[in-house]
Amino acid sequence: MRSVVLDAGGLALSALLCEPAGPPRALVVAVHGGGMRAGYFHGRARSELSLLRLGARLGCTVLAVDRPGYGRSAAALPEGLPLAEQTPLLRAALADFAGRHPVGAGHFVLAHSFGGKLALALAAHAGDGAGLLGVDISGCGRHYAPGAEDEVRHRRPASRRRHWGPLRLYPPGTFRQSAGTVAPMPVREAAELAGWPGLFDRLAPRVRVPVRFTFAEHELWWRRQEPDLAALAAAFTAAPRVLLEHQPGAGHNISLGWAARAYHLRALAFLEECLPPGA
């Protein structure tokens, strides 16, 4: 695993990269949530929980990108950017990477929380034949849970429990080791939170690749009763497949918890199903 810099149309984005021993079968693009950085996918408390290491061992290149307003670009974008402006920058960064590295059969976006919103925006604007294989999202839904909705609408800080769930879900040392992974959510990004349900309804019908959503057992941000999930899936009218799954023994930040390896394996199994025959 090493740090790299991507050219996003003149803006430098930092990222973490882990490559397989041979030619990659695909590129897994990992997109972090609000208030986190790319290190979210490389949990240091237990090495076997790292998505980067696991994906590379299974033959994929894994690229975890610091979204615009985080990491290296934070100084240039102290207030961050809304989704509409983050989307073309991420697309440009991936094009820069693909111009310098093999990406196998294409790219697969694995995203968490606010990163899931960016993943859907990227997919909605990808069109056909853009090399996007599929999208796997955790910690992001369509409508906020009642308590979370109130916090978002009035811009009140969310409780630790809403972000993390029970502490027993995370290995010892997680919070000490993840100190460099946590970052402030930029204000322009935070300003968009309340409007997400409407934006979701505009983006979902435009997604034309398979989509998988995972909700943690202790997820407190999103409505996830059966009617809520059925409506979420029904919104993807052009997607060939929409999967809805639950991850037991996990809080909102799945990729830093004990359940990370199980979730990552299931996400990469979904990638296997999205690959063309023989890839």
From TrEMBL:
List UniProt keywords, sorted A-Z.
Answer: Hydrolase
- The AB hydrolase-1 domain covers 28-254
Residue ranges the record marks as coiled coil: none
Stored Pfam families = Abhydrolase_6
The record ties this protein, via InterPro entries, to: AB_hydrolase_1 (IPR000073), AB_hydrolase_fold (IPR029058)
Q: Name one GO molecular function term.
A: hydrolase activity
Top-level lineage group: Bacteria
Q: What is this protein called?
A: Alpha/beta hydrolase
